[in-house]
């Protein structure tokens, strides 16, 4: 068992930040609900990567446990959100998120 | 050497994630998203977290992405779905994901083919994860189960009404 982490932690964090930014841009730019959900998945996955990397840096299991909690959160979110997507499609006949803006926020 | 593997997997995940956001076809984007998740699973393994890597593939790339695929396919019921799917599954569509997955597969073969210590730093084995999970984090496990139960009830409620109206439509 080596002690030094050969992969620099900063580079993993840079990767996680880049993935998060790509997902964030996707949420802002895309208007299709399916793509919005995919971008949310990308962002959550980037958070999980940061947690696992930090856990690996200090050789603790906590990072992986936080990742598992994020995973269950993602599963719950996807299940409910896809149900909402089906309702949206039934009500508006397409998947444009702007169609559901009648709350006027 | 493991740092080189990390940078290759990192660029694969960045490229495929960029392609996810820029696709117009939902099922193409899903395939690129699966490639991106596989790349991140390789990174988890290199970071010394084999259990997280397995979960990434089994739950994320396996279960959640299949859920997405079900919904994408379901929304195309009725309106000339067969032609549409034939259009999606053109052979040249597979070239991009195929190349990216081949890179990951080459890394996988290299890691399997000996060279112990490919995982950098200290490995956190699944046993340690399990002991911490059901020791210090027991309350979090209970809360996660309540969250999943709430999601189950919510998804059933939302989907049930959808299926009823869909059946009436078809009949």
Describe this structure in words.
The complex is a heterodimer of chains A (105) and B (171). Chain A is an all-alpha fold and 105 residues long. In chain A, 73% of the residues lie in helices and 0% in strands. Chain A contains three helices and no strands. In chain A, helix 2 (33-57) runs antiparallel to helix 3 (62-92). Chain A is elongated. Chain B has two domains: 2-122, Four Helix Bundle (Hemerythrin (Met), subunit A) (Up-down Bundle); 125-171. In chain B, 30% of the residues are buried. The model of chain B has no long low-confidence stretch (mean pLDDT 83). At the A-B interface, helix 1, helix 2 and helix 3 of A face helix 1, helix 2, helix 3, helix 6 and helix 7 of B.
Helix and strand topology:
The complex is a heterodimer of chains A (105) and B (171).
Chain A: H1 9-29, H2 33-57, H3 62-92
Chain B: H1 2-22, H2 26-46, H3 50-74, H4 81-88, H5 95-112, H6 126-133, H7 138-170
Concise structural overview:
The complex is a heterodimer of chains A (about 100) and B (about 170). With about 100 residues, chain A is mainly alpha-helical.
Tags for this model:
heterodimer, A: 105 residues, mainly alpha, elongated, B: 171 residues, Four Helix Bundle (Hemerythrin (Met), subunit A), 2 domains, 7 helices, flat
The pLDDT mean of chain A sits at: 85
Helix content of chain B: over 70%
**Oligomerization:** heterodimer
Number of helices of chain A: 3
Structural class of chain B: mainly alpha
Q: Return residue spans of chain A where pLDDT drops below 50 for at least 5 consecutive residues.
A: none
What string gives the helices and strands of chain B in order?
HHHHHHH
CATH topological fold name of the largest domain in chain B: Four Helix Bundle (Hemerythrin (Met), subunit A)
Instruction: Sum up the overall morphology of chain B in one term.
Output: flat
**Total strand count of chain A, please?**
0
Order of helices and strands of chain A: HHH
Summarize the biggest pleated sheet of chain B. none
Report on the biggest sheet of chain A.
none
The overall average pLDDT of chain B, rounded, is: 83
Bulk shape of chain A: elongated
């Amino acid at each position: 068992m080596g002690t030094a982490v050969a992969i620099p932690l900063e580079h993993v964090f840079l990767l996680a930040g880049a993935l998060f930014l790509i997902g964030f841009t996707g949420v802002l730019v895309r208007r299709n609900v399916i793509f919005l959900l995919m971008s949310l998945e990308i962002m959550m996955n980037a958070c999980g990567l940061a947690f696992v990397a930090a856990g690996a840096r200090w050789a603790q299991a906590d990072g992986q446990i936080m990742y598992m909690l994020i995973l269950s959160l993602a599963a719950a979110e996807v299940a409910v959100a896809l149900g909402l997507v089906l309702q949206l499609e039934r009500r508006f006949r397409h998947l444009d998120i702007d169609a559901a803006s009648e709350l006027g926020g | 050497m493991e740092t080189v593997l990390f940078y290759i997997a990192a660029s694969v995940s960045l490229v495929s994630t960029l392609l996810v956001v820029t696709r117009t076809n939902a099922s193409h984007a899903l395939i690129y998203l699966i490639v991106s998740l596989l790349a991140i699973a390789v990174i988890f393994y290199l970071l010394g977290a084999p259990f997280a890597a397995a979960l990434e593939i089994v739950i994320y790339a396996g279960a959640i992405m299949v859920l997405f695929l079900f919904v994408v396919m379901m929304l195309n019921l009725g309106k000339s779905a067969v032609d549409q799917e034939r259009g999606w599954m053109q052979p040249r569509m597979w070239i991009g994901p195929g190349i990216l997955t081949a890179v990951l597969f080459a890394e996988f073969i290299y890691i399997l083919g000996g060279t112990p210590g490919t995982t950098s730093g200290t490995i956190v084995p699944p046993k340690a994860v399990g002991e911490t999970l059901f020791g210090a984090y027991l309350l979090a496990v209970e809360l996660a189960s309540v969250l999943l139960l709430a999601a189950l009830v919510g998804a059933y409620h939302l989907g049930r009404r959808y299926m009823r109206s869909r059946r009436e439509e078809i009949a």
